Amino acid sequence: AQANIGVVGLAVMGSNLARNLASREGNTVAVFNRSYSRTELLTSEHPEAGFIASETIEDFVASLTTPRTAIIMVQAGKGTDAVISQLSALFEPGDIIVDGGNADFQDTIRREKENSAKGLNFVGAGISGGEEGALHGPSIMPGGSVEAYKTLGPILESIAAIIDGVPCVTHIGTDGAGHFVKMIHNGIEYADMQLIAEAYDLLRRVGGHSPAAIADIFAEWNTGELNSYLIEITAEILRQVDPKTDKPFIDIVLDEAGSKGTGVWTVQNSLDLGVPVGGIAEAVFARAVSAHPEQRGPVRATLTARPEIAIVGDTFQEDVRQALYASKIVAYAQGFDAIIAGAVKYGWSIDKGAIATIWRGGCIIRAQFLNRIVDAYNNDPSIPSLLVDKYFADAVATSEAAWRRVVSTAALSGVPVPGFGSSLSYFDSLASERLPAALVQGQRDYFGAHTYKRVDMPGTFHTLWSGDRSEVATEGSSH
Ligand code: 6PG
């Protein structure tokens, strides 16, 4: 046995992670893949990595020094379960199995329970950053036991992205905490992408700018408070010209967005937790709407005319930038609310500032902006919403008028802005003194005797709607 760490599953993410590990001082990396040809390809293309390659899982396990540590990088779901059961049959108490895929955190909770019953450490670790991140430095969100992190932490720290000398990895919490937080990261990623897409659409259809001109606008925005990986790559994508047709690349791509599931999971779990993540949900739904051409075409065909595009002035571009920033703040506020609610429900002790810290580099949502979230939670870890933090409250106040102009201009022009619109409504809901929820309570009480509370006295009440309409105090709950 000579390898201190092993990787199982050598598709692009696994191969790149293995190469990243091998490039760090002190690591010897064992590799295994179900079909050996892929292992051979990796070892022959990268002799410099000094991989220890095995043809069987038994040899792979034998090549690891104890406590054995293996990172599984296979497709989430059944494939992961199969590899886990192979490894757990051969591993000994104290050994560490890491699942680096985009697993459902409920699966991770189950797998951790099953493996810890055998004395094995099971760590579900969210890894973000795509192929390049895996190779040069991802952001890593490990769950699992504190004990496992003692061995695993230094290895993960050695391969993670580094920002201001701080590696983008922290022990998130026990069992499924890492995969839960990675799931929310992806939900925020969906919202971020959708908001940027809406900004592009407005600049193009209302602002009348070409993709190349919008690329320049995004590149400029990337030098300010919106500075982020997603804004940076957006500029590059919009600047791309299709070599086959010489058209803008964006115009030759079919406008039907795919997804692999983590955004949907974020919304499903937030619904269960009762956390309003409308901005994230609208991003998921926007992809779903786009993927229904059989409805889009026929609905468009029913229209005899489209609304006229509103005439906008020179300030429109800056308005869109501010609307994007305000909506982005809402998306992060909602995402962190989901993390907080998940931590309460599943019993994780999480450090919100530490999560914002490890998202500053390596991951898809990496951005300058995360520093402001770190500050917010450092100033007051118990703030009821990020929107209450002074910096964010000021930022939203500064952008508010522009945000409203953009959403109304979009509505008048017939340009869909589900992300901008829902984020603004969310903000207005939180900011309203009275909500029409009172009427909803009245309706619930009318048809189902679901009861309500009063603003002026404690207790729970019901009005005898089909009787004399007097009010009675009840034992029930109005919720
Ligand atoms: C990351 C990404 C990644 C995700 C892809 C695809 O953090 O590196 O979130 O994990 O799988 O972005 O997601 P969709 O196919 O659902 O868009």
Automatic annotation (TrEMBL):
Q: Which reaction does it catalyse?
A: 6-phospho-D-gluconate + NADP(+) = D-ribulose 5-phosphate + CO2 + NADPH
Q: Where is the active site?
A: 182, 189
Name-wise, this protein is 6-phosphogluconate dehydrogenase, decarboxylating
Pathway involvement of the protein, from the record: Carbohydrate degradation; pentose phosphate pathway; D-ribulose 5-phosphate from D-glucose 6-phosphate (oxidative stage): step 3/3
Q: How does it assemble?
A: Homodimer.
> Taking every annotated instance into account, which residue ranges of this chain make up the domain 6-phosphogluconate dehydrogenase C-terminal?
178-466
Enumerate the Pfam families for this protein. 6PGD, NAD_binding_2
Question: Does the record bear Oxidoreductase in its keywords?
Answer: yes
Function recorded in the entry: Catalyzes the oxidative decarboxylation of 6-phosphogluconate to ribulose 5-phosphate and CO(2), with concomitant reduction of NADP to NADPH.
GO annotations under biological process?
A: D-gluconate metabolic process; pentose-phosphate shunt
**Enzyme Commission number(s) from the entry:** 1.1.1.44
Q: Extract the PROSITE patterns matched here.
A: 6PGD (PS00461)
Name of encoding gene:
gndA
**Gene Ontology molecular functions:** NADP binding; phosphogluconate dehydrogenase (decarboxylating) activity
Q: What is its EC class?
A: oxidoreductase
Give the family, as the similarity comment puts it: Belongs to the 6-phosphogluconate dehydrogenase family.
Q: Which UniProt keywords apply?
A: Gluconate utilization, NADP, Oxidoreductase, Pentose shunt
